[in-house]
Predict the structure of PqqD family peptide modification chaperone.
Amino acid sequence: MTPAYRPSAATAQLVQDDVRYAAVLPSGPIVVFDGVAELIWAEACGGPAATIVDRVAASTGTEPDEIREDVERFVAELVTLGLLVSGDL
């Protein structure tokens, strides 16, 4: 099995005009993702956990080592907030 992330069972989402609104129900708060934040969310939920940084770097034209710390910190924050959980593909 390959480690990956997915929205938690309590996460509600709405995508409108390339902006994602997500909240852990019923307590919230609502978190708004656009731009790079939306890209990181999509990549976190769209493939193996081990390649999130590489996929974000490829999409933004940056080197993985330049963004690794920020991307990993952001994904960890989403897990801490209860918006994402780790699982397997």
